[in-house]
Amino acid sequence: MSTDDARARVGGGRSTALAAFVGGLREYARTPVLLALFVFLPAYLIGGFTRLVPSTTTPLDVPGGGTQAVEMAALYAVLMVPLVGALVGALAGVFLIQAARDADARLVVAGARPVSVLLARFGLLAVVGALVAAVSVATAATIYVPERPLIVGVAALLAALTYGLLGVLAGLVVDRLAGVYLALFGTMMDLFLVQNPLADPPEYARLLPGHVPVELAVDAGFSTDVALSVAGEGAAYLLAVGAVTALALYRTMRVS
């Protein structure tokens, strides 16, 4: 293959990825339910739940900050940020694969490179995750301003992307309704119950996708001393889930 042919293929792959990405954004814009899911649901859940929490304080062991007495509303304002990120990310992953699976296969049959299509879909999940993280941190700040709000946002983004990819995997094997139930119960069980900093977490808690986002959010919420190694663990977990998801999607797009 000549250099010009190789460049043409690379340019074609980029244009395919960009076209699929822009098409996905337009699809979101034309679906008010999805816009409500990405923007209004995080604000509603965080704002509503934290205002129902009793006005009491509780001792909290902050990694890097020792044991502190924190307001319950402040704690759950921070804790809800990665939880909402994971929930909306998982739902977005389910909806994304259910809506785009057939279209992606047709693109590949028409000559598009599977890698370009994968990049477009993962890019859409990244946009959703960033939007949800921004809305969640902004809403939480109306109740309590975290010590390191940017890192709390990173925790929400990690949760949204990781669970978004898991939602894509779920959407490959179950229908939309079952995927929604898995997203709801899976994220609640992981981030709200198993990873709850007020409870004694079981040994397997560190193996679940919600461990790093919750630890990172709580650490950044109540301490300025945040261990960057925690974020590294989350990035490694995300890459592993991303590799598995990419392989599964590639197999569904492969042309015989």
TrEMBL record:
Transmembrane segments: 33-53, 73-97, 118-144, 150-173, 180-199, 226-250
GO cellular component: membrane
Protein name, entry field: ABC transporter permease
Originating organism: Halosimplex aquaticum
Signal sequence coordinates: none
Keyword entries, A-Z: Membrane, Transmembrane, Transmembrane helix
Record has Transmembrane as a keyword: yes
Taxonomic placement: Archaea, Methanobacteriati, Methanobacteriota, Stenosarchaea group, Halobacteria
